Amino acid sequence: MSQGATRMQNFLSRATWIAMAAYCFSVPVLAQNPKVPDWQSLTSEEAIAGCDRYAAHPSDPMKPDNVPGVALDADVAHDAAYIYCSRAFAYNQDNPRLAFQNGRVNHARNPNMTGQPLQMFKIAYRGGSKIAGTYIARISPVEARKLFGQNDRRRPASAQSDSASWFNGLAMEIGRTEASYDRLAQRIGCCADTKQKVTKRFPSIRTSIDKTQRRKGRKQLYCSSMALLELEVGFLKSWLTVLSMESQGSKKRGSISSKDAASLDALISQVEQNKISIKAKATQIGCANS
Question: Which residues make Cβ contacts (< 8 Å) with residue 118, sequence separation at least 6?
Fold first, then answer.
């Protein structure tokens, strides 16, 4: 082969490589993931089902009963959840559950972005989503105080029943967490003392819930009780975290399966959500300013 022909072949090879690279980089990243649906082709029903599957929160009372939910925010930060939830909300802009889940996905994908997620959470909260309020309190306490204050002025007659409902919901969540923990603890092959300390936290939390409910008509005592309740739930999270670290440490390797370790982490995240919810409720009543 002549030198000119060799140079031409090399040129064509480089040109082909450049063309292929340009094509690959021009294809959207989402298209390379077979689990990600086509946004345009999704029906409303398909979008809602996918959004619930990938972004519903286990503690959201608005979610369908047959949907388990995804406990960790980090686990909803993928492209499938983004496509399903953005499409579901586009079809159903008056649905507070879908607004919350859409905001949750966007916040998980970019925790530093507050504009779009906050707007979604506000839409959801105004539509009756209590869990959206906990996210508002987390990312923007100033907005939370404004919004919760507006909500109090808008519905003064129902404040007492709303408060009772909230406490009952919290008690049910703590009960479910306790039941999940009891099943999980039986499978963890170590750390008897730490497991027992976790178990002892649940009765004290229920006592704090009952005491706070009785004091809701006396603001100073009520706010002190809310602070104690938040502290009790914080202690529970601390002991669960200690158990997670202890059972997965090098000295006790094999004491917990990877699946159970993930379940324990999900419980820790759930308890953290309870703590945020308590803080948001205290802010709503005006305890932050007392």
Answer: 103, 136, 139, 140, 143
